[in-house]
Amino acid sequence: MDLRVRALETVLTQKGYVDPAALDALIDTYQTKIGPRNGARVVARAWVDPAFRQWLLADATAAIASLGYSGRQGEHIVAVENTPDRHNLVVCTLCSCYPWPVLGLPPAWYKSAPYRTRAVKDPRGVLADFGVRLADETEIRVFDSTAEVRYLVIPQRPEGTDGMSEEALSGLVTRDSMIGTGLARSPRAAP
């Protein structure tokens, strides 16, 4: 795959269709400036700073922007918090609206018709497909992103993380946990 990408890049550059500097800037943006690591930092801050957590729940767009994460597809973000009694799941039933500044590019499965349909009809089954099994009494709320509003799930902070630094905590947060199709890693399972 890497060789194919390089060959395509070479051909497009030689034909003058792609400016190598612009391509480098685009790649750098997606590798270092936007993506799930940003969302993980937002979640970790919410876990350690109760005032930030409240701000995030009240006005996620502003709270997230205060950390320097804003831009296209991040204009109107709402944060929803998982609790022991409630688990939140995000889907976009019409297309694939997604908060790029904090989650990066959407995964292929997020855009697929089966996910978009089943997340609404059978959220517990979708979660099971992702390896998430919740107690029967846990309420599951499904949030449908739109062109106007995108959602960020604040996963529950794992047990055994007291005393961990914000940086270490951010390593426990996954893209899937911020969509609701996963849980935050336990400190023992973190890479």
What does this structure look like?
There is one protein chain. The chain is mainly α and 191 residues long. Helices cover 47% and strands 12% of the residues. It contains 11 helices and 4 strands. The strands form 2 sheets. A two-stranded parallel sheet has the order 1-4. Strands 2-3 form a two-stranded parallel sheet. The radius of gyration is 18 Å and the shape is globular. It starts with a helix and ends in a 12-residue tail after the last helix. The relative contact order is 0.17.
Low-confidence stretches: none
Largest sheet: 2 strands, parallel
Main sheet strand line-up: 1-4
Task: Please trace the helix and strand order, writing H or E for each element.
Answer: HHHHHEEHHHHEEHH
Structural class: mainly alpha
Tell me the number of strands.
4
Let me know the average pLDDT. 90
